[in-house]
């Protein structure tokens, strides 16, 4: 007779659903955390602990978040939360960068659409619109960041346009002014003719650009080299527009040159037979090819002998009636061109330095908007972007063009307007890298800083070693002004602390607008007359703003400390925020504002391509959240090796969602298995537990060390891989699989079942807490299933203290042998199922053959339970032919036989004693369990 024993079996029971429904569920957690004041609760409950301060690199407040923002902020959140759960007071204050060109550009775009002239708008009105634009996007981005589960002091962030922040930035600049590091000088800088301002290196990106190339002949006027009489010196350049600014030619003193006499010309050549040209022999063949001529060497000339040679500008007689000296330049090579480099000191760094060294003045040729000044012969009013044809025509008409062509090469562009940039020598404000030993201090600070990954150190160090003085001025309107007065008579900036104090007081009270609106005499006081001073209206490079955040955030908030424990941004910030913060702090405090720097790579699509709207391969974090939920995006972040570029796309997100499903099912299974578990059921003596439970606790102890080390190293992809493997291989496919029978069928007070549930409880607590920094919503959902309450949160807990004595390497070695044998048996069972020898594994009684020493190692382990069979026989003998074996488990074979007996109606094992007990159709174990259970069904 068949009896229904279902009511006596402890099937898993939980309200934790298999389908997460994260997009709908997560906002509820956010509302709950907001209501309970989770962040403030953390601060109160963490008072007195060691602080961990991750200083937020401010994103720019000018649009919706992109996937790079999501990666960055989620990684910061995971680190902050993991430090909090290790027992620290992890304070996270988000911030925003608000000044600068991107916002100003947006407001100007609106003006252009309406046909307005930005320069005709009062400064105060324009700045007000910029401020309102930034405020709008701060609110949008704050909401989007919070939706990603990022926890921080969102009600009290820092903002670079706050009055106090602006005042503090002015104070920081004042320190450089007072110590003599800040000076005004003319130097070549990267200039945007579209945005009419100098750009910082971090605002520059490189794209392929097609340039017009020209080979130009400079007639020799005089030279100590007799062979140069009547010859032309040939140069090659990719910037024809710089020809009006030419004032010298550079040669390599150690290079060899030669005078070539043209012997033959092809159709279309611009030279004629008999022309004599100075070229570097290494490049002469290429010049002849593009110039469509052949030539022979008339005289060899050493570079050093060219000193004192004077040439005429190729447009002499048309307003360019000056001599062009030949100067030795260390930067000249024979790699490309002609071996001679034309020098336009207004449009190149090497050009500027070489001409200044020889007392050659810098001509002012190109205006802010990229047009030539009115006094420039032939080209006045023309734009540098469009002037190449006119230059070629003029040179051809003068008989001085040898050839022209096209070249596709990597060229600097503005990251905002996407327009190509030019080098332009202008009067700018600089912070000296040498005054007050700023470069040396910065290099020492780099050596004293921890870099993750370590390669970041060398990258930043090489930049500091080679960088020129820091150009901190911009010719814009929306920013923190350079609050400096310059003596009109001497040209020297006014260095007076009392004046600075009056300026900063006004800025702190009414914002930086005060500098533009107030009477300058109110700042100068009674000691100086306003008419004697020029008031500077340039604004600071925004990198100076963000580089100063450490001063008005870390130093002035009681909940933080200086220096920060960590700065974290993308690898491009070695030339951006890491860089400017380092220089600002070293220049004012003598050390870096951070103890450690972590960098991550960029986010690419699934094919490894850079994301762009034109390719249609962008992934918006808002779309991911709406489709999958924020926890899926967070899981993707920690599953990738952020030190390198990461990939994301539809297929990767599907895989991530599948991984999440498996992790969620692990939690769900444990919650179901723990239904009704209380402290009274727990086994407190670990030594009394079965070996399998002690092995699980051993693995927990191992993992605890891995988790804490990964949190220290910030290697979260390793942490994820270890946790995922543990849940998938050690738990789901091994421990849970084996103990399912004991959980379902053992009596409530059975020692094995109690030990299993005790370990399950320990597992659950540890795993949920380890997952909490990245699966913030799922961990909370699971935690509340076991710990309900309005004021309860897993994010108010810390990682469990795992006893060190749970680690048992000898036991682990024994169970590694058990798992090897089990793998062979499971393979044999799968083959038997496929061959229809058995249906379920409980119908089997395998014969296992293994070396005696291996059997001795696993002696005492119930291998039938481990392999989920109704019985098993272990034989210390060689496996017979046809036995199932694995190549990596030497000497072990298995043959599947069917189990003898009847199927137990409760546990489904096939055993000889089924039907011989007081309850019909059950085995002895189930008979005792049913008897022991109140309300058992007969």
From TrEMBL:
One of its GO terms (cellular component) is cytosol. Its EC number is 6.1.1.5. Binds 1 zinc ion per subunit. Residues 901-927 form the Zinc finger FPG/IleRS-type domain. It comes from the Bacteria. Zn(2+) binds at residues 904, 907, 923, 926. Signal peptide: none annotated. Catalyzes the attachment of isoleucine to tRNA(Ile). As IleRS can inadvertently accommodate and process structurally similar amino acids such as valine, to avoid such errors it has two additional distinct tRNA(Ile)-dependent editing activities. One activity is designated as 'pretransfer' editing and involves the hydrolysis of activated Val-AMP. The other activity is designated 'posttransfer' editing and involves deacylation of mischarged Val-tRNA(Ile). HAMAP family: Ile_tRNA_synth_type1. Belongs to the class-I aminoacyl-tRNA synthetase family. IleS type 1 subfamily. This is Isoleucine--tRNA ligase. It comes from Novispirillum itersonii.
């Amino acid at each position: 007779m068949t009896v229904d024993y279902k009511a006596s079996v402890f099937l898993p029971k939980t309200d934790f659903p298999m389908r997460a429904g994260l997009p709908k569920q997560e906002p509820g957690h956010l509302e709950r955390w907001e209501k309970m004041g989770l962040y403030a609760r953390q601060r109160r409950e963490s008072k007195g602990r060691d602080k961990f301060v991750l200083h937020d690199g401010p994103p720019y407040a000018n649009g919706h978040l992109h996937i790079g923002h999501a990666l960055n902020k989620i990684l910061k959140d995971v680190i902050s939360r993991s430090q909090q759960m290790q027992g620290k007071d992890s304070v996270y204050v988000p911030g925003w960068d608000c000044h600068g060109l991107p916002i100003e550009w947006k407001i100007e775009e609106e003006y252009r659409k309406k046909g307005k002239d930005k320069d005709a708008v009062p400064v105060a009105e324009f700045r007000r619109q910029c401020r309102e634009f930034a405020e709008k996007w701060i609110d949008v981005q704050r909401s989007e960041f919070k939706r990603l589960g990022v926890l921080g002091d969102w009600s009290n962030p820092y903002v670079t346009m706050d009055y106090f922040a602006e005042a503090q930035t002015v104070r920081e600049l004042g320190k450089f002014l007072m110590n003599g590091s800040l000076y005004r000088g003319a130097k070549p800088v990267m200039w945007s003719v579209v945005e009419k301002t100098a750009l910082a290196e971090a605002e520059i990106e490189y794209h392929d650009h097609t340039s017009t190339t020209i080979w130009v002949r400079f007639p020799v006027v005089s030279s100590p080299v007799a062979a140069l009489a009547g010859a032309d010196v040939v140069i090659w350049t990719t910037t024809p527009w710089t020809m009006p600014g030419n004032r010298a030619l550079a040669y390599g003193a150690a290079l060899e040159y030669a005078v070539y006499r043209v012997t033959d010309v092809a159709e279309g050549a611009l030279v004629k037979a008999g022309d004599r040209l100075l070229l570097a022999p290494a490049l002469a063949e290429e010049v002849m090819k593009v110039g469509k001529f052949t030539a022979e060497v008339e005289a060899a000339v050493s570079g050093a002998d060219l000193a004192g040679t004077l040439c005429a500008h190729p447009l002499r007689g048309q307003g360019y009636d000056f001599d062009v000296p030949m100067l030795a330049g260390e930067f000249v090579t024979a790699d490309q061109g002609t071996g001679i480099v034309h020098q336009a000191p207004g449009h190149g760094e090497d050009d500027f330095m070489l001409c200044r060294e020889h007392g050659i003045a810098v001509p002012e040729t190109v205006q802010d908007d990229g047009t030539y000044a009115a006094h420039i012969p032939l080209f006045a009013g023309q734009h540098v972007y469009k002037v190449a044809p006119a230059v070629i025509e003029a040179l051809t008409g003068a008989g001085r063009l040898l050839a022209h062509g096209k070249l596709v090469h990597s060229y600097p562009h503005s990251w905002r307007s996407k327009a190509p940039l030019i080098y332009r020598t202008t009067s700018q404000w600089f912070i000296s890298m040498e005054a007050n030993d700023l470069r040396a201090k910065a290099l020492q600070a780099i050596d004293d800083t921890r870099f993750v990954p370590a390669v970041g150190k060398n990258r930043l160090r090489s930049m500091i070693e080679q960088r020129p003085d820091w150009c901190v001025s911009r010719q814009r309107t929306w920013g923190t002004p350079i609050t400096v007065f310059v003596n009109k008579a001497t040209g020297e900036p006014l260095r007076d602390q009392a004046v600075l104090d009056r300026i900063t007081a006004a800025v702190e009270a009414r914002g930086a607008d005060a500098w533009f609106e107030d009477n300058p005499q109110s700042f100068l006081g009674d000691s100086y007359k306003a008419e004697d001073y020029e008031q500077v209206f340039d604004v600071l490079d925004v990198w100076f703003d963000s580089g100063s955040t450490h001063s008005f955030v870390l130093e002035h908030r009681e909940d933080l400390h200086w220096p920060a424990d960590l700065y974290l941004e993308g690898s491009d910030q070695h030339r951006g925020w890491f860089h400017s913060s380092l220089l600002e702090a070293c220049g004012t405090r003598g050390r870096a504002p951070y103890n450690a720097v972590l960098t991550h790579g960029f986010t690419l699509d699934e094919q490894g391509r850079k994301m762009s709207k034109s390719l249609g391969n962008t992934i918006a974090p808002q779309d991911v959240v709406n489709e999958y939920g924020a926890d899926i995006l967070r899981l993707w972040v920690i599953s990738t090796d952020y030190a390198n570029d990461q990939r994301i796309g539809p297929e990767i997100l599907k895989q991530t969602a599948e991984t999440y499903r498996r992790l969620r099912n692990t939690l769900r299974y444990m919650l179901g298995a723990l239904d009704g578990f209380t402290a009274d059921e727990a086994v407190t003596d670990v030594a009394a537990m079965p070996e399998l439970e002690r092995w699980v606790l051993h693995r927990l102890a191992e993992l605890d060390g891995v988790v804490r080390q990964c949190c220290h190293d910030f290697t979260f992809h390793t942490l994820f891989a270890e946790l995922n493997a543990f849940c998938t291989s050690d738990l789901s496919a091994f421990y849970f699989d084996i103990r399912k029978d004991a959980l379902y069928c053992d009596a409530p007070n059975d020692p094995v079942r109690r030990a299993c549930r005790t370990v399950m409880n320990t597992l659950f607590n540890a795993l949920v807490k380890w997952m909490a920094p990245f699966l913030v919503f799922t961990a909370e959902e699971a935690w509340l299933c076991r710990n309900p309450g309005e004021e309860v949160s897993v994010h108010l807990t810390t990682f469990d203290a795992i006893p060190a004595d749970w680690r048992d390497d000898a036991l682990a070695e024994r169970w590694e042998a058990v798992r090897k044998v089990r793998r062979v048996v499971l393979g044999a069972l799968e083959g038997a199922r496929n061959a229809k020898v058995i249906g379920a594994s409980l119908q089997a009684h395998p014969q296992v053959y293994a070396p005696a020493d291996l059997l001795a190692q696993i002696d005492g382990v119930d291998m039938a339970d481990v392999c989920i069979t109704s019985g098993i026989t272990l034989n210390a003998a060689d496996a017979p032919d046809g036995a199932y074996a694995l190549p990596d488990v030497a000497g072990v074979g298995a043959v599947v036989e069917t189990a003898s007996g009847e199927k137990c109606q409760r546990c489904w094992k096939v055993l000889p004693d089924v039907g011989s007990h007081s309850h019909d159709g059950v085995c002895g174990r189930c008979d005792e369990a049913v008897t022991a259970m109140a309300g058992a069904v007969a």
